[in-house]
Design brief:
Rossmann fold, two-stranded antiparallel sheet, 7-stranded parallel sheet, 2 domains, 9 strands, single chain
Length: about 400
């Protein structure tokens, strides 16, 4: 009787138990903290133009995160999430893609969207949920999406984008397109069932997909050692038949190199890849979180010294591509750009009421018509409680 189970394991005649030491996955690092390269390091495909675009995106995201977190504290917006300390992970990987590769983000990858060309006004319109928001004000702040930039709209439920990414990549393969999907998630999301289903399907169907795990050490307040007993997330990729690599997530050159090679595997060989980027979230999980309750300042200071932005800055200066004067000018430029865009967005009206009910059905069904009419009647009755919307009804 034939045995069609897929395994090339050798046969032994005494019990042999494997553990995490049986598979050791190294960490790719190219750039030292001082901006110099490790000897014999394999450089990514990068020139001055690309390097400066990546770094300028770093500076913009720092300015955006700083201003938006302050705005949340002032009560001007309801919610925000920074990516401080993790910029190299999403921006460096996005720089390895082509413009029409699909990005499926979790909620801390605004840098990849900025790298693609999402404007300060577009960021602000979404954050303030005004009528110019591409999502028509239906999402929480930072749940971006852009059809033009091939950036799938973010969904709040954790890890739902992973099986969706596998399905999207399967469609790319079926259509014989020379593109891939990159799907971002944190190590906390890797504890969800969707993670395992997605990786298993991707491995079986050999789809052009890069799973990109930002392992920043914490799932909100839960440290990694309380989440899993294995050696990080990377070994799971091997178990599901994916090509797998672990990188220093604060080393933008290592992230870029790994993702460039991963894209070749995904697009040219339909070989799904798992990248685990070891990084650290310097800020809070969100504007609703206080990290002082679960980690100490000494730990944060240790990782602050490994900052991906300063590491790349040192490298750029050593290349002769950057200096302190340019640094100061661009920082000031981005801060002013963000403030100006914020002031414009605050003045834009909220979306019209009908945007709560359209775009789902070609013809609005009776029950939505009734709900819309009931809501309009309620707002007319209590206009002072709905000032952002009631003005649209005039003196009716």
């Amino acid at each position: 009787m034939s045995d069609n189970r897929k395994t090339d394991a050798p046969i032994v005649h005494c019990p042999v138990f494997s553990d995490s030491s049986s598979l050791t996955i190294p960490t790719l690092r190219i750039l030292k903290d001082d901006g110099t390269l490790y000897p014999d390091a394999a450089m990514p495909d990068i020139d001055q133009t690309l390097a400066l675009k990546i770094y300028d995106t770093f500076l913009f995201i720092r300015a955006l995160d700083e201003r938006m977190l302050a705005s949340q504290r002032q009560g001007r917006i309801s919610f925000y999430m920074t990516e401080t300390g993790e910029e190299a992970a999403d921006i460096g990987s996005a720089a390895a893609l082509v413009d029409d590769d699909m990005i499926m983000a979790q909620y801390r990858e605004q840098g990849s969207l900025a790298f693609r060309g999402f404007t300060p006004d577009q960021f602000m319109n979404q954050i303030f949920s005004n009528e110019k928001d591409l999502g028509k004000g239906r999402q929480m702040p930072i749940h971006y999406g852009s059809n033009a930039l091939h950036y799938m709209t973010i969904s709040s439920p954790l890890a739902t984008q992973l099986p969706q990414a596998t399905g999207y990549a399967f469609a790319l393969k079926a259509q014989q397109k020379n593109n891939c999907v990159i799907c971002y998630f944190g190590e906390g999301a890797a504890s969800e069932g969707d993670f395992h289903a997605a990786l298993n399907m991707a491995g079986v169907f050999k789809v052009p997909l890069i799973f990109f795990c930002r392992n920043n050490g914490y799932a909100i307040s839960t440290p990694a050692h309380e989440q899993y007993a294995g050696d990080g997330i990377a070994p799971r990729g091997v178990a599901y038949g994916l090509k797998t690599i672990r990188v220093d997530g604060n080393d933008v050159l290592a992230v870029l190199k790994a993702t460039q090679e991963a894209r070749k595997l995904a697009v040219e060989h339909h070989q799904p890849v798992l990248i685990e980027a070891m990084t650290y979230r310097l800020g809070a999980h969100s504007s609703s979180d206080d990290p002082s309750g679960y980690r100490n300042k000494s730990e944060e200071d240790t990782w602050r010294a490994k900052c991906p932005v300063s590491r790349m800055k040192h490298w750029l200066i050593l290349q002769g591509w950057w200096d302190e004067s340019q640094e100061e000018n661009r920082q000031q430029h981005h801060r002013q750009t963000v403030v100006d865009a914020m002031k414009r967005a605050e003045k834009v009206p909220a979306p019209p009421l009908e945007d709560l009910f359209n775009d789902v059905y070609e013809s609005q069904p009776w029950h939505l018509q009734e709900q819309q009419a009931a809501l309009e009647q309620h707002i007319r009755k209590y206009p002072d409680a709905y000032k952002k919307t009631a003005w649209r009804f005039g003196n009716e």
